[in-house]
Design brief:
By secondary structure, this protein is an alpha+beta fold. Helix content is 27%, strand content 42%. It has a single domain, classed as SH3 type barrels. Strands 1, 2, 3, 4, 5 and 6 form a 6-stranded antiparallel beta sheet that branches. A hairpin with a 4-residue loop joins strand 1 and strand 2. The radius of gyration is 16 Å and the shape is globular.
Length: 109
């Protein structure tokens, strides 16, 4: 499920979030395709204009697509507004398309 996580570090991270369970107890979360999200113009939300937001890989120096997160690092998990979810999904789709176009030789240079 696509969620927006506010972390102790102050970052807003959007990801496909799932719970890591031990029996009935949540022991952590898995963030799939996590990205930080920022508003370039927060006023647009209040003026009902197109949102100008930027996504960036949450941990850019890893090739992992699924990252475990300790529950005590998450302040809250919320549902993003529909425009943010749509832009995120479009960005993930574009990223997957462009990475599948690369050959292995491109990655070893």
């Amino acid at each position: 499920m696509i969620k927006l996580a506010v972390l102790k570090s102050g970052e807003d991270v959007i990801a496909d979030v799932s719970e890591m369970l031990m029996g009935e107890r949540v022991i952590g979360y898995t963030f799939k395709n996590p990205a930080t999200v920022r508003f370039l113009d927060p006023q647009a939300l209040y003026e009902h204009r197109d949102l100008d937001i930027v996504f960036a890989p949450w941990i850019p120096l890893t090739s992992q697509k699924e990252i475990p997160v300790a529950p005590d690092w998450i302040i809250t998990l919320v549902d993003p507004i529909p425009q943010v979810t749509q832009k995120y999904k479009e960005g993930i789709k574009d990223d997957q398309t462009s990475s599948s176009d690369k050959s292995d030789s491109d990655l070893t240079d």
